[in-house]
């Protein structure tokens, strides 16, 4: 049996090809109990630990079911929870150091007027907040000028509040309560765009950005697109 994140709308199958990406569902104890889906595509493949943060999904927002078989499953990659937490630690400590090193610089940039608490749901998203946060997501990831402090503060906040992980938590052992593979559908649209149909039928801001900016995802999704021609 396979544990699969459910495609919510049947019309998704008519919009392009759906591939099932390997994710791991981790229920763990940090500052509080967390239930998060993490991509198995860690930095050992992507060469960038930030991708592990970008692709994290709150499990409570995703409907899951067990099925006897699936097609187009990407089975060539294995999951490793240690690699996931190593990526999180790497990104968190880098972001924290950058924030502390540039705090004084940020005082001159208060006109950015960013309320961090409103935007934590971009990487660990809630449907209610995403529409309000897409513009700030694009802003922080480079379509517009953003200070290193702004980006680092944002990522640090997401890890602390979204994933429940702080430096104190990292210094202790994170207790994993449950760990299982979940197959997460990614729709490669006939229009060339990418969607996450287990969540909503809108372009995936995060996957679109990764395909443009990360060689691993650029190659992987490029191969899928070539298959469908």
Quick recap of the structure?
The chain has 229 residues and is α+β, with helices and mostly antiparallel strands. The protein contains nine helices and eight strands. The chain has helices spanning 43-46, 50-54, 81-101, 103-106, 127-143, 148-162, 167-171, 205-213, 215-227; strands spanning 2-5, 16-29, 33-39, 57-58, 64-67, 175-189, 194-196, 200-203.
Brief descriptors of the model:
alpha+beta; six-stranded antiparallel sheet
Coarse structural class: alpha+beta
Distance between the termini: 31 Å
The helix tally amounts to 9
| Spatial shape | globular
Extended strand count: 8
**Structurally, how many domains make up the residues?**
1
Strand content: 15-25%
What spatial order of strands do you see in the largest sheet?
4-3-2-6-7-8
Instruction: Give me the strand/helix succession.
Output: EEEHHEEHHHHHEEEHH
The largest sheet, given as strand count, sense and whether it forms a barrel, is:
6 strands, antiparallel
Low-confidence stretches: 106-139
Rg for CA atoms: 18 Å
Explain this structure to me?
The chain has helices at 43-46, 50-54, 81-101, 103-106, 127-143, 148-162, 167-171, 205-213, 215-227; strands at residues 2-5, 16-29, 33-39, 57-58, 64-67, 175-189, 194-196, 200-203. Strand 6 and strand 7 (194-196) form a beta hairpin. The protein has one domain. The strands form 2 sheets. It has a 6-stranded antiparallel beta sheet, covered by helices on one side. A two-stranded antiparallel ribbon has the order 1-5. It has 229 residues and is α+β, with helices and mostly antiparallel strands. The longest helix has 21 residues, at 81-101. Helices cover 41% and strands 23% of the residues. The model is unreliable at 106-139 (pLDDT under 50). The chain is built from 9 helices and 8 strands.
């Amino acid at each position: 049996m396979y544990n699969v994140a459910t495609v919510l709308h049947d019309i998704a199958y008519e919009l392009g090809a759906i591939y099932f990406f390997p994710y791991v569902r981790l229920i763990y104890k940090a500052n509080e109990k967390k239930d998060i889906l993490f991509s198995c595509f860690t930095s050992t493949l992507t060469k960038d630990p930030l991708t592990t943060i970008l692709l994290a999904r709150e499990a409570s927002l995703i409907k899951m079911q067990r099925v006897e078989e699936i097609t187009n499953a990407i089975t060539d990659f294995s999951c490793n929870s240690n690699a996931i937490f190593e990526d999180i630690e790497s990104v968190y400590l880098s972001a924290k150091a950058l924030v502390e090193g540039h705090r004084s610089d940020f005082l001159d940039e208060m006109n950015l007027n960013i309320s961090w608490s409103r935007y934590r749901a971009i990487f660990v998203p809630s449907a209610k907040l995403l529409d309000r946060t897409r513009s700030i997501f694009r802003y922080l990831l480079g379509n517009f000028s953003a200070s290193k402090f702004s980006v680092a503060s944002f990522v640090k906040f997401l890890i602390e509040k979204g994933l429940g992980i702080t430096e104190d938590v990292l210094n202790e052992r994170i207790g994993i309560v449950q760990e299982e593979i979940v197959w997460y559908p990614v729709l490669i649209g006939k229009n060339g765009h990418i969607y996450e149909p287990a969540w909503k039928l809108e372009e995936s801001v995060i996957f679109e950005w990764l395909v443009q900016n990360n060689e691993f995802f650029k190659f992987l999704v490029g191969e899928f697109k070539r298959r469908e021609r």
